[in-house]
Amino acid sequence: MFDALVKKTIPVAPKKTRSTREIVETAIKEKKIFSMSGCYPVLRNCLQRRGWVEKTICRKVTDANKLVDPDGNLRFKARLLFNVDPNFFWIPRADAMNYDLLSEDQIINHFQNAKCFTTKAGLCTLLDSMCWFADVDPYSFVPRCYRLRQKDERQEFIDDFIQTAARGILKWVSDSNIPDYPCDNTQPGQKRWIGKQSHTEWLSERTTPQPTVKPDIILKAIDICKTYLDKLEHKDIDKELPKPKPPVFWKEFLRDYERVIHDGATIENATLYATRCHSLLHTLEAVCPQIDIEGERNIWIIKPGAKSRGIGIICKNNLEDIMSLLDRDPVIPNDDFCVVQKYIERPLLIHGTKFDVRQWFLVTDWNPLTIWFYKRCYLRFSSQIFSLKNLNRSVHLCNNAVQKYCKNSPARHPDLPDENMWHDYQLKHYLKLIGAFHAWDDIMLPGMKEIIIQTMKSAQDKVVHRKNTFHLYGADFMFGENFQPWLIEINASPALSKATSVSSKLSAQVQEDILRLILDRREDSKCDVGDFELLYQQVCI
């Protein structure tokens, strides 16, 4: 009866019908039926070349008639496979599938509960528990962050903002007796200035009479930093708790801080305190792993906790502005997971322009934890010259989803790519040009690998374990001026699109290599897995 229905409703040539039926029956016998959600033409073609047949999901048999299918072959296959369960699922996200309905041998490309590290809020929460799973300080490789709508974390952020401002004053004073213009840690082959567009601009400001701030701000900054150190060393336990400072104290301190750092005011007799501030900064360096990257301008990046592609992300350097966002911003009030994260003010730049690195890795098992690292990665550039005075998204967000709408600045270096992407080998070439011959192999690459391992180990008990499951993740890294990597976030569904010539080539390659690793390796453990390398495999005890 079923065959009669097929013949009645689908006009397919007899020879073609016979051929299609043979292909489908062979695929069913070999367990090579797949189902795919989303537009992945490369992946689809790779599967079909391996003899896999796609099942188009229909709620009922007659729905096959509604499929757009000029020659009727797609509809015919949909009917033949209506009662056949796919052996391989590729879905856009975990919540698109009811995992309770899966049999043990069905393969799927998403683990459940990966949100514990693939959302901004999830990663922020994970950092607090990381010390229990790894002998590492997470804030040595992830910029510190807070969930603004959590009352305790909101207060921690306010304290952090004030302490960062105090360290900014110490840095300003420590550099006040340096005769040269304020160059922040010159990299080999390049020079840039804190918050300045050019040396000429800096000189013009220097020759212009500047407003002054009393040296009380220095004493306040020293007091704030010493109180912070005492708290870390638990010295405050033996002391009588000081009376809380009145709100006006903090308001005046931040006002004077902004006058100095943002408005260009000078501090009276600052050079008299330079040695003292320098010494205190040296002490702080031992307990503040982010002191070098945090800069002086106290910039923070505010992110909706569970969105992607740069949606809703903004940069701010004023405490009142940041806190007021909770009440007036159209995105953040509805986002209970809003995260504020310290912005890296002293990043590694290429020709004076900000960039980040998208690094793929794949987890094939959580018990034992098994991680595969992709040997290829790509860089994403900003379309604008880096500046800490301009907080526009086009300067500071390197996401292609943001930059594709921006016009490249004509002032950028001519060697930067028009499409704002580089292959990793182009980065290595640039590093050699500036004399950093071993930066990639000795610092950047090993650092990224170790960060991925430690983060996955911390998430291991939170992700739902399931055999015959794998998951491709996209980690976004930035680098400090010393080439040390910093994890910004991890994406659960990294783009595999043809946005640029760089991403087009690499995304096609990684999709082919995924199938080599997941499917071909099942039949031959020594098969070629492309550019994937086994990064970590937990030893079972």
How would you describe this structure to a colleague?
With 541 residues, the chain is α/β, with parallel strands linked by helices. It starts with a helix and ends with a strand. Helix content is 38%, strand content 15%. Strands 11, 12, 13, 14, 15 and 16 form a six-stranded antiparallel beta sheet that branches. Strands 2-1-3-4 form a four-stranded parallel beta sheet. A hairpin with a 5-residue loop joins strand 14 and strand 15 (485-491). The chain has helices at 2-9, 14-29, 41-49, 73-80, 115-118, 120-129, 151-174, 199-207, 216-232, 247-261, 274-285, 319-328, 393-396, 400-403, 424-433, 439-459, 501-523, and strands at 33-36, 53-54, 88-90, 107-108, 145-147, 212-213, 266-267, 300-303, 314-316, 339-342, 355-366, 369-381, 421-423, 471-479, 485-491, 532-537. Residues 4-10, 180-203 and 329-335 have low confidence and may be disordered. It folds into three domains: 2-90, no CATH class; 115-144 and 299-537, 2-Layer Sandwich (D-amino Acid Aminotransferase, Chain A, domain 1); 145-285, no CATH class. The chain is elongated. Helix 2 (14-29) packs across helix 4 (73-80). The chain contains 17 helices and 16 strands. Pfam families: TTL. InterPro entries: ATP-grasp (IPR011761), TTL/TTLL_fam (IPR004344), TTLL_monoglycylase (IPR051437). Residues 475-519 form the ATP-grasp domain.
Write the topology of this structure.
Elements: H1 2-9, H2 14-29, E1 33-36, H3 41-49, E2 53-54, H4 73-80, E3 88-90, E4 107-108, H5 115-118, H6 120-129, E5 145-147, H7 151-174, H8 199-207, E6 212-213, H9 216-232, H10 247-261, E7 266-267, H11 274-285, E8 300-303, E9 314-316, H12 319-328, E10 339-342, E11 355-366, E12 369-381, H13 393-396, H14 400-403, E13 421-423, H15 424-433, H16 439-459, E14 471-479, E15 485-491, H17 501-523, E16 532-537
Parallel strand pairs: 1-2, 1-3, 3-4, 6-7
Antiparallel strand pairs: 5-10, 8-9, 8-10, 11-12, 11-14, 12-13, 12-16, 14-15
